[in-house]
Design a protein that fits this description.
Distance between the termini: 20 Å
CATH class of the largest domain: Alpha Beta
Helix content: 25-40%
Number of helices: 11
CATH topology of the largest domain: Rossmann fold
Number of strands: 9
CATH architecture of the largest domain: 3-Layer(aba) Sandwich
CATH superfamily of the largest domain: Vaccinia Virus protein VP39
Radius of gyration: 18 Å
Shape: globular
Number of domains: 2
Largest sheet: 7 strands, mixed
Length: 279
């Protein structure tokens, strides 16, 4: 109710819950442009490219399906929702310096317990360059240490709030096609796929299974089905000729954003994204 009144009055809304993960391409800076698309009449919130799940945590839906192809990410969310205090305690005890970062990054992940993998994932995420998730061809995380700009580890209270929200969600390590095939009438779907733009390089995340233009074309079919069955969707994507053409049958709004991938703040620039929706 608070959010609906604030939105109608044109006020900025400060989410009660912030994600604990940093993520390249995170929608924190435009969260107030996204939140008005959601309302409590939807039966379920669905997000196939979860990442840091910024919108999910901001609106706190009572029923949700969160998914991502990144198994390490989904396993981390599973541990977080079960053991938020213990997870925070373990992360807080690890020294935050380059030497320790490189040691933890070089650990043999397969030998770690699921809990320890979650500790490692969040620790590396908080201290890596620009919150980027990137792996080599072997699937090994290889993002360098960031000496500045990482911020403090979120409080134990934020860990617990995130855990409470995650306990209201079904979470899976699925590809987007599997997730979108589960969408039903009355659902609200938010999509923030990695960008596959031909005429310029926009980094979001990559690894052995990078998102491609072929995948972007597949999204069209999924959105057509979602629209047909009576579900709502909102997608944020780079403003580019591919997206404008592929998704031309739905409403599009161009918004200004700030790119945060450049190595120095003076080199960071503004760009434009599209909000694409059937609402």
């Amino acid at each position: 109710m608070r959010d609906e009144v604030a939105q109608q009055a044109g006020l900025l809304i400060k989410p009660r819950i912030n994600p604990i993960l940093r993520w390249a391409g995170s929608k924190r800076q435009i969260i107030n442009r996204l939140m008005p698309f959601w309302n409590s009449s939807y039966q379920r919130y669905v997000e196939p490219f979860a990442g840091s799940a910024t919108l999910f945590f901001a609106i706190e839906p009572s029923n949700a399906l969160l998914a991502d192809l990144n198994l390490e990410l989904i396993d981390t969310y599973d541990v977080l929702r079960k053991f938020p205090k213990e997870l925070h305690s373990h992360i807080s005890l690890i020294p935050k310096n380059k030497k320790t970062y490189l040691e933890i990054r070089g650990a043999q992940v397969k030998k770690l317990s699921k809990f320890d993998r979650a500790v490692r994932f969040i620790y590396l995420n908080r201290l890596c360059f620009n919150g980027i998730y990137r792996t080599n061809r072997k699937g090994e995380f290889n993002v360098p240490y960031a000496s500045t700009g990482t911020g403090l580890t979120p409080s134990v209270e934020q860990f617990c709030l995130c855990a409470d929200s995650l306990n209201k969600a079904e979470i899976h390590s699925w590809d987007f096609s599997r997730t979108l095939s589960e969408v039903k009438k009355g659902d609200f779907v938010y999509l923030d796929p990695p960008y596959a733009v031909e005429d310029r390089r926009i980094f979001c995340e990559y690894g052995p299974k990078a998102f491609s233009k072929k995948n972007l074309t597949q999204l069209v079919g999924h959105l057509e089905r979602i629209d047909l069955i009576g579900a709502a969707f909102l997608m944020s994507y780079a403003d580019c000729k591919e997206a404008r053409l592929l998704f031309k049958k739905w409403r599009q709004k161009r918004i200004k954003v700030r790119r945060n991938i450049a190595g120095f703040s003076s080199h960071r620039r503004h760009a434009y994204e599209l909000l694409i929706t059937n609402i």
